[in-house]
Amino acid sequence: MTETADRRVIPVILSGGAGTRLWPLSVADRPKQFLALAGDESLLRQTARRVRDPARFGAPTIVASRGHGIAILGQLGEEGVAAAELILEPCARNTAAAIALAAVGSDEDDLLLVLPSDHAIADEAAFHAAIEAALPLAREDWLITFGIAPDRPETGYGYIRRGEPLARGVFRADRFVEKPDRATAEEYLAAGGYDWNAGIFLFRTAAFLQALEEYEPAILAAAREALEKGSREDGCVLPDEAAFARSPSLPVDVAVMERSSRVAVAPCDMGWSDLGSWDALHQLGPSDSAGNVLGGDTIAVDSKNCLIRSDGPTIVTVGVSDLIVVASGDAVLVVPRGQSQRVREALDALAGRGQKDAESES
Fold first, then answer.
1. CA geometry: angle 212, 93, 23, nearest 5 deg
2. CATH code for the domain defined by 5-273
3. What is the pLDDT of residues 47-87, one digit of tens each?
4. Every domain of the chain and the residues it spans
5. Residue 120 — φ and ψ, nearest 5°?
6. What is the separation of C-alpha 110 from the centre of its chain, rounded to a whole number of angstroms?
7. 273 vs 288: CA distance, rounded Å
8. H and E: helices and strands count for the chain
9. Other CB atoms closer than 10 Å to residue 359's CB: what's the count?
């Protein structure tokens, strides 16, 4: 998969997420991409290593939150990766705007491989093979998304329905489907031809910019103005805040991928997880003989099918099952397995309590 200089595959690593669904371990100052959740090293370092082969990839462009610049540079330094660009967003405007920043600063013939910084991929050979299969179509200005063959009726992911085959291992994306209910997800699994939307993309810079100009020109205009009026500091690109804040806040799926007629899906069985919830981490394992996934100073006595993790105090469970128990700092989360998506309710409750406390003190 060696590329000529004018057709380089440039990884674009998106590291702007807050990872709040993994509270209390993942917080704004230390989101999940900086944590070792699927192995001994952080997810960001694993992502950077996945695309560091110089025979396959150019130096990566990283798009991150402005407050995380020092952490990004530290982690890339530990991995021995030098970013071509480190673009620090002044505010969060979702993935379409983040990718637009990277694309505007790229050569129009560059092939951009867009990767979230906080996903786990167990089979990197399968990942690289999927890229190989998709490259010819990306060169022909198809916008490629990588799909994951579902192995369960998951309701936490969006789906892509495959259309006609375009090449070996690549299909026209017939339809994007939002997160379904359980019954619909079961129908998709039984019918086949549906893939989870992994949020990983491959396209030629010019093709993406043209699509963005057609469907969401305000996003493209904001990115261009933000870079033109921005600055550089300590090797980092600092887009202008006022200009960038004018960008509509849309995920790239909604802004472009669901609207273009030249979108293809490359299904891939690569041991993927977005690690988007504590339930996902329990499923990823590894587990003990009783089905418990343990991390940190924890002891599970007569306990089954639990996820128990601490980065501080000792946690001991006795005679419980199907629980998620996580301690970090001065916070402890306890929630039944299968309901970890409700972490948002915990954060809302804490935010409400803080509001009331502030009011009572005034």
1. 135
2. 3.90.550.10
3. 999 998 888 899 999 999 988 888 888 888 877 777 778 99
4. 5-273, 278-361
5. -110, 135
6. 22
7. 20
8. 11, 19
9. 8
